[in-house]
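pasting for ref. prot 1 ->
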Amino acid sequence: MARIKISESRFAALMGDDKKPDSKKKNKKPAQNESSKQHNPNQKQGQSQGKKNKKKSSENENKPPSASQRQHSQNSETDENRNNADDWSQWRERDSEFTDEAYEKDLQEALLLSKLQIEEQKQVKKQQKQSENGKTDESTQNKKKKKKAMSLEQFNATDHEKKEEEKGESPEPIIPTAKVHPNKANVKYFNKVEDDVSKILRKEKIQEDYKKHYAQESVMASKYQEELEKKDEEIEKLQNQYQTLAEEHKKVKKRNKQLCFILAEGEMKDKTEVLLQVEELSQVKDELTDQVSELTAELEKERSKVHMLKTEIDKLKGVKSSR
């Protein structure tokens, strides 16, 4: 494995709040001692003035801050916050640049080391093959030496076979090889390493962009899935409500049919009763008309009788008067 050099921390250049230089404090002490030595005769006056200044400062501290002081403090705080934000953004940019440069250097070193290791392994394999080929050549030579003596006929036959094999084999073409200067080869090698590093960085950037895009797509897909699930639940609820309402509608239809049938039966009964009553009343009317006609006939008869009786009575009265 290729060893990567560990660079110094990028935070080493920054000074912590707790680790501030104490050189000023150390330098202030001897200066104060010298001034105290020089002004020993006027020390009492300075102490009295210091007490007065302390009283004034305490009075000023106890006083509430004015509106102008508050505005000034607020403006100073906003300016400090802005400056801190600008410094933070600049530091982040520098930090990202430093980390990118360090990462590129580490990648170049790792690629160089890996390629050197691969070349060393290739050389070791070549040496092993050469040693194995040398051992095989020695073994073949020893075998040839150990062979028995051949007859003339066998020797002639072997010579004839070798000549035929040499005729059949075509000579290999000689490929001209251009000599490359070692400095040019090193430049090409380092350029190749830089190209490999740039390719790796491009691949990593593409992978990061793909991961970000995939993460956004996954978030959007999860949101859409949640919305679809909610809508599916709402659709199921609405379907259940529709089914219940359809069943209730069927029940209401049945009830209405029954009520209509009952009302129709009631109306028919009422109509038949009314018709019967009308027929009965018509019969009574006919009977009454017959009775009235009979009574009128009898009245006329009685009237005629009464008239006849009156005429007879009048005649009898006239006869009596004449006598």
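and prot 2 ->
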Amino acid sequence: MTASSDLVLPATLTHAQAAKVSQQIEAALLSANSACVLDASALNHFDSSALAVLLGACRTASQRSLGLGIVGLPPRALQLAKLYGLSDILSDHAPQAVTH
């Protein structure tokens, strides 16, 4: 990845898929040299592991000083984030936070 990149979450992201998806996203972020967008709009079957994957992506991007925008989070994921007290962290990665 040499330019701004789009990453896409799968339709299903539960504990069973979390480690693999997290590794894929981390690898993409580690090879990126500009802002990335993480598209969660396909997400339709998930558990709290999806939030862990998102937080890991935010942490990796922050450690690399990369912009990371998270777009398309389903309402149920936003509700889950709010329940766990994570909505502020995820809102820091809203699309307007990404500069290309």
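The two ends are 14 Å apart (CA to CA).
The mean pLDDT is 87.
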